[in-house]
Amino acid sequence: MIRIIVVEDHPIFADGLLALFRDLPEVEVVGVAATAEAAIELVERNAPDVILMDLQLPGMSGVEATAHISARHPAVAVLALTMLSDDETIIAAVRAGARGYLLKEAPPTEIIRSLQAVAAGQVVFGSSAGSRVLAALSALSAETVRPRPLPELTDREREVLDLVAAGLTNHAIAQRLFLSEKTIRNHVSNIFAKLGVSGRAEAVARARDADLGI
């Protein structure tokens, strides 16, 4: 039995997935969440094998949720199911720990096969996203040979710091990244703690030293 959690904020699409899995005796849906925060709570309570994760979610993004879950529950496989096919999102999802990446246009048979594959420990990229995934992974491989600035920060924290150093307020950063202002404040606090700085001015100075915000 494969225990899964469906994370999807569009009710119609979520209902379609639930109907698909309802006919599979080897699959048990142990939770449904419309936000990343709710998904994280469900993982703690229900110990799923696989999470079918939308990446565009209100509040915390699906990529951030994937990173959070993968760090705390490495045995749980995250299968991204999204409309996003840009290289940046694919790279971010892979870095966050996603074991599979499908576009929502994938046929039901492909979703089922991918679900079974990641549950068995395989890494799967759907046919419709395959070429983009390969291109993104090639770019990721080339990028890893160059040292990353401020390696103590996550990719999202580095992105936020870059915008802080560019002079944006928390409100403006939240709008730019489609995140809540509370999430941005949390990122900024984490950045200050990791860099050992006491305020925005010191953080900006560190960022400029690392060629961010220019």
Structural features, described:
The chain has helices at 11-22, 36-46, 62-72, 87-96, 108-119, 130-143, 155-165, 170-177, 181-195, 200-209; strands at residues 2-7, 27-33, 50-53, 77-82, 100-103, 124-125. By secondary structure, the chain is of the alpha/beta class. The protein has 2 domains: 2-143, Rossmann fold (3-Layer(aba) Sandwich), CATH 3.40.50; 155-209, Arc Repressor Mutant, subunit A (Orthogonal Bundle), CATH 1.10.10.
Keywords:
214 residues; alpha/beta; Rossmann fold; Arc Repressor Mutant, subunit A
TL;DR of this structure?
The protein has 214 residues and is α/β, with parallel strands linked by helices.
> Class by helix and strand content?
alpha/beta
Q: Measured on Cα atoms, how large is the radius of gyration?
A: 18 Å
Percent of sequence in beta strands: 5-15%
What's the helical proportion of residues?
A: 40-55%
Q: Calculate the terminal CA-CA distance, rounded to whole Å.
A: 52 Å
Question: Taking strands numbered 1, 2, ... along the chain, how are they ordered across the largest sheet?
Answer: 2-1-3-4-5-6
CATH evolutionary superfamily of the largest domain: Response regulator
CATH topology of the largest domain: Rossmann fold
- Domains counted in the coordinates: how many? 2
Count every helix, treating DSSP H or I runs of 4 or more residues as helices: 10
Quaternary organization: single chain
Instruction: State the CATH architecture of the largest domain.
Output: 3-Layer(aba) Sandwich
Query: Major β-sheet, in short?
Result: 6 strands, parallel
Shape label: elongated
How much is the average pLDDT?
Answer: 87
What is the CATH class designation of the largest domain?
Answer: Alpha Beta
| Low-confidence spans | none
* Quantity of strands, as a count: 6
**Helix and strand run:** EHEHEHEHEHEHHHHH
